[in-house]
Amino acid sequence: MDPHAQIGSLHPLEIKVLIALSQHQALQSRPLRQEDIGHAAGLEPSQLSMAVEWLLAKALIRVESEVVTPIASLSKVGERYFEKYAPIERILSVVRDAKQTGKRVTIQDLQVREGLEPSEMSGAVGSLKKEGAIRIVAGGHVEATGAPSPLTESLRTLLKDLHGAPRELHAFPEALRRVIEQYAVKRGNPNEPFRIDDRVERRYQLTEAGQDAARVIATQGLGDEVSQLTPELLKDGSWRTKRFRQYTISLRPPRLSAGRRHPYREFLDLVKRKLVSMGFQEMRGSLVETEFWNMDALYMPQFHPARAIHDVYFVKAPTHARNDMVTATRIARVAATHESGGETGSTGWGYHYDRERAQRLVLRSQGTAVSAHTLASNPAVPGKYFSIARCFRYDAVDATHACDFFQVEGIVLGPDINFRTLLGLLNLFAVEMAQAKESRFLPAYFPFTEPSVELHVRHPELGWMELGGAGLFRPEVTLPLGVEVPVIAWGLGLDRMAMVALGIHDIRDLFSTDLDMLRTTRGHF
Amino acid sequence: MPTISINLKDFEQLLGPNALKEATAGRNVLTAGSLEPLLPLVKGELKDQDGDQGEVRVELQDSNRPDLWSAEGVARQIRIKLTGAAPTYPFFGAKPQGKRRLLVTPGLEKIRPYVAACTACGYAVTEAGLAQLIQVQEKLADIFGRKRSTVSIGLYRLPAIVFPVTYDLVSPEGARFTPLGFDEKMSLREILAVHPKGLEYGALIAGHDRVPLLRDDEGQVLSLPPIINSREIGEVRVGDRELFVEVTGTDLSMVVLTLNILAVNLADRGAVIEPVQVTYPYETALGKSMPTPLDFGRPQSIPIQAIRDALGMPLESSQIREALSGYGCEVRGAKDKLTVKLPPYRNDLMHAVDVVEDVAISRGYGSFEPVMPSQFTVGGLSRVEQMSDRIRDLMVGMGFQEIIANILASRQELVERMRLAGSEWDRIVEVDNAMSLTFSCLRQWIVPSLLRVEAASTRSFYPHRLFEVGEVAVPDETEEFGSRTRVALGALIAHATANFSEVHSSLDLLLFYLNCPYGLEPISHPSFLPGRAGQILLHGHAIGLIGELHPEVLEQWQVTMPAVVFELEVDALTEKP
């Protein structure tokens, strides 16, 4: 590379190092150590190591020699041992005291009294026993033998020598070196008193390219280099006489935090847009519902198992909705339908319908409750509606169960609605919502539809999965609410697809409280 | 709905040679793989399997088809479809032998009014058969019978019983017997007080001075329904050839239907069923005296055009009849109308639409070509959702990260940590039967949800700017449901120098773009530092709050950075002044 062009991209720190090395090389043949370069160039250690890394990467300098020296020092644990004594010292001292005062101590006593971890305890007792400084006698009592403990003594020597003053490992005699090595922090064993770190001493020299660059710098000088264009330079036009340092643009930029939609919201927005594009109008509903709207209006009998205390959340206060005339009339029609079919041509469920219970307040447990309200409020015919409704279920929360989640549901009303158009709509969902090339229909059961269908699709990543359930609302649902045309009720189970798209495996992460996760989760839609 | 175990070897027997041949393409060995494609006929889903042979577990979806909750029932439905022949059960309508009687005592109408019974002889109970008997008994009593409250079932060894049997009513000290699971005789009171089943189901017959009891002509106790059978008579074992079956309960049609199902299941295994004449001292929907099992279903008349319309297919009358009889229904046809009668083990024909589905399942859903709904409709979002989307765009533009939180939270988070306890802001919608306190209340504002994120993210680099546009439930006595569901925007800024003026700038810019000329009015609110909180006013109405969070609130949430917030009602922004 042309040395002139290269100099333009050099950082001021790099230039200082190049100059220092070239001046030194002119005088002496022995290459410089890193710390000497720092000294000569007047750089902080952190600046120096950055500059050296960059210059090495650009092949302007090279490592001439490398000497590795192991250095022993105390770890945090070691410094603590120095102050408060190591477990082995403490145990030996207690046991020796006990011998003098004639007391008896057990391992449990020692552990409790000295507040030691079981692992520390067993290691120390084991070493002392091995050396013969203590013995365990009947009843689990620990006794001092009177024999010395060389390990304990070496340990104390080393703790004193190394306290606050790292030293070369080779400065110690063989026996002490072995103790340091044995009790040094290692991977998987961080609680040891000593550390051994390699001190690497490198010497550097200019490469030929480096010498060329240094020569250019020496002969031409750096000119008037600036790093940042400023308003002043622009105002007085003096930028014309400046040289702009060239950047190394491959470095990673500083991190930003962006304003951003929630990744799950991005997914739901996609769903929302799809549905609107297919001609669906959005419905909204209430988080608190009556049993009437949540279930009765959907022809789920009051004795239905899914209505029990263990499936639905009941509101504490008020317990019941206020009565008004409109509701009373509506309840009367639904009550007649449940009891004997009313005017729907059905036999009804044949039980005594509890009108008081109809007004019991619950947390909405299914999005279909929103559809029930729409059916009762003069919906458009033909009409298509959807809601992305928060629903609540009495469920223990874990990786696959949430107690509070979105359901994507809706209805389609019209004179042309029948079983085959129901299948047609589901086919459309399969293609639009899951990009599925294959789908199939299976008979299903929902209390409020007949016939009922489950839509299974072959998802590109998940394989065959249930995408949704649907059916034609029973006349027992539509007629009492004043709808005379056939109605499709449909629901889509999109959470699994959302989780795949967001790369998460725990349903709770859809509502994550971890900002880092929100900032880093990307959708693959 | 129930998941049942099926032994495939046993299932092969139940299918019979012709259906087995058909189901296995002539290989005559049934595997989970060859069973699975047949399960749509019973709305069944294969859950798991023990090897490709042996046991499989099948979930049955239809809660109105308890006849399918056993290997016998599943096999029957499949067999009918594959062989085209519905089985006949001549014991429906047969006259009971003179002595086979069951007499009901007056007074039971107030406790557990109904009973049905029959005998089953000539089938030596096999291990697989016994497993199914126990399983179907459990599933029917537990799910269909709502934990035995409407239906419970007893099976007995017939030779030990002397007819007539009495469905009696006695005082809790009025009889003693050895219940299943115990070794000695106990009084009824003791059984209710001590026996695990007494403790579990005793409440069903509590509150009266007498309890139901089934005993035979010699006074031997069969059982204390719906609690527990006698150990001597009421323990059926492998090899037994003569059984007595009874069902008691509070709903006559469910009681009789349950017995019908048990009777056809046993008949399918080769038992000869003999009915029992049940006589009541009081009137029932089916009269005072009736033989059971009893086919009480009535034929329904259904216009053929209704079926065609619902299916969207111009099927011929003969095609519909073929589909229905191939699914086990009795069909008689006129030109425009069909008369459909379900088999005696089904009682799920409430409306003509129920027949429509049977036709569709019988022909197979795959045989219906999907058609797109053709009518034109206009799609669109609600006003509040459109406004929410605009707000989300603006908040994102101002550098806020959106969150989506659980709407369920705890009182501690929503009220106590916000220093609202005892204030005018401490009312929230609470759940009566919460499973855990963490999820026991509906949030009344968004800020606690933002603080939940803030508290969990103290190690995430600052500044933090969070917002959520989401639903809240605001208690309001004037509302029909005692609360209003509202969409609210909450925003939070947290970093070392976060202050009022910074969050005010965000609010100001947001409302500028939304064209909402707002005002601020100082407010004293416990969640905020005094003198650094305001009420947001729009056209003279309070629509939200803004301020620096009180240090005590931050402490309670263990948030270690200053945090400033605003919250406003999105619905209010959509309303024109």
Structural class of chain B: alpha+beta
The number of E-state strands of chain A comes to 18
Question: What does the main sheet of chain A amount to?
Answer: 7 strands, mixed
Largest interface: chains, residues each: A-B, 106 and 95 residues
Please name the fourth-level CATH homologous superfamily of the largest domain in chain B. Answer: Phenylalanyl-trna Synthetase, Chain B, domain 3
Question: Looking at this structure, what is the CATH superfamily of the largest domain in chain A?
Answer: Bira Bifunctional Protein, Domain 2
User: What is the terminal separation of chain B in angstroms?
Assistant: 52 Å
CATH topology of the largest domain in chain A: BirA Bifunctional Protein, domain 2
Number of helices of chain A: 21
CATH architecture of the largest domain in chain A: 2-Layer Sandwich
Total number of distinct structural domains of chain B? 4
If helices are DSSP runs of H or I spanning 4 or more residues, what is the number of helices of chain B?
16
Please name the defining characteristics of this protein:
heterodimer, A: 525 residues, alpha+beta, Arc Repressor Mutant, subunit A, BirA Bifunctional Protein, domain 2, four-stranded antiparallel β-sheet, 21 helices, 20% strand, flat, B: 577 residues, Phenylalanyl-tRNA Synthetase, Chain B, domain 1, Phenylalanyl-tRNA Synthetase, Chain B, domain 3, 4 domains, 16 helices, 28 strands
Description:
The complex is a heterodimer of chains A (525) and B (577). Chain A has helices at 3-8, 12-27, 34-41, 45-57, 76-84, 87-101, 107-114, 118-131, 150-162, 174-182, 208-220, 231-235, 263-277, 291-294, 325-340, 355-358, 368-375, 419-434, 475-478, 495-502, 515-520, and strands at residues 32-33, 61-74, 105-106, 134-137, 141-144, 167-168, 194-206, 225-226, 243-244, 281-282, 288-290, 361-363, 383-392, 404-413, 439-443, 449-459, 463-473, 487-492. Chain A is α+β, with helices and mostly antiparallel strands. In chain A, the strands form five sheets. In chain A, strands 10-13-14-18-17-16-15 form a seven-stranded mixed β-sheet, sandwiched between helices. In chain A, α2 packs across α11 and α6 packs across α8 (118-131). Chain A is flat. By secondary structure, chain B is of the alpha+beta class. Chain B folds into four domains: 3-83, Phenylalanyl-tRNA Synthetase, Chain B, domain 1; 101-292, Phenylalanyl-tRNA Synthetase, Chain B, domain 3 (3-Layer(bba) Sandwich), CATH 3.50.40.10; 300-364, Phenylalanyl-tRNA Synthetase, Chain B, domain 1 (2-Layer Sandwich), CATH 3.30.56; 383-574, Bira Bifunctional Protein, Domain 2 (BirA Bifunctional Protein, domain 2, 2-Layer Sandwich). In chain B, 29% of the residues lie in helices and 27% in strands. In chain B, a hairpin with a 2-residue loop joins β26 and β27. In chain B, α1 (8-23) runs parallel beside α3 (71-83). The longest helix of chain B has 18 residues, at 127-144. Chain B is elongated. Chain B starts with a strand and ends with a helix. At the A-B interface, α13, β10, β11, β13 and α18 of A face α8, α10, α11, β19 and β21 of B.
